[in-house]
Amino acid sequence: MAEHMMHFPLNTSDILKSAALRYPNQEIVSALFDDSIHRETYLQAYQRSCQVANLLAKQTFPQGSRIATLAVNHFRHFELYYGISGIGLVVHTLNARLFAEQLDYIINHAEDQWLFVDPEFLPQIEAIAANIPTVKKIIVLCDSTEMPTSSVLDLTCYEQLIAEEPTHFEWPRLASTAPCGLCYTSGTTGNPKGVMYEQGSTVLHAMMSGSSQFLNISEWSVVMPIVPMYHVVAWGVPFSAPMFGAKLVLPGCALTGENIQRLIET
Q1: What is the pLDDT at residue 33?
Q2: Which CATH number fits domain 12-265: 3.40.50.2000, 1.10.10.10, 3.40.1050.10, 3.40.50.12780?
């Protein structure tokens, strides 16, 4: 038979695009480094992910190129998950708790092209700046009023970089086997080893983990992943929560009992 029910493979971009259509007003709440609370909707997150995608699509990155992030759980990191993976590039989440030597090795081994970094982690990058020649641009995840300075690094502001980009993007249709994420092991036996996530497997994982058999997520749920987005993709919650329309709470870096309790109460 020539006709098929589904003519396209499973892609990560479909998850957030669907959430923007089905749950446009559902919130993503982020606790930021300065103790402030940021709120945006799935529709806004989708539009900003489109801006990220438009920015990256103008570059000359070959498909499968690695774009690194050194960031905790917040809305900008969430946007990067989709803006990077959705155009056929690979989100390489760097573990902020690794030693400088391990970060050095991982960045070089992955041949990361760009690096998106939280301001608080800049000293870690400054310490290895001379040893990571593949990284051509370092983008700080902040707005212009929070932009730090560095005597070692040439820095670019994330908000300024995406500000003029369109909020619509025609996502490419990628093979289900196309790589979309990269996470390295801790290196307990020798150097850290990279584990690649694929488009199709990531969508299927979100579908299964959010189902009633596992996390039982729905549009009436409020989900807060404590596990970092730089470690095993926060158990896939940044993909499963929007797939099922759940409110997503991203707790940032201040993971003390007091801070988590206050965030839950608010």
Answers
A1: 86
A2: 3.40.50.12780
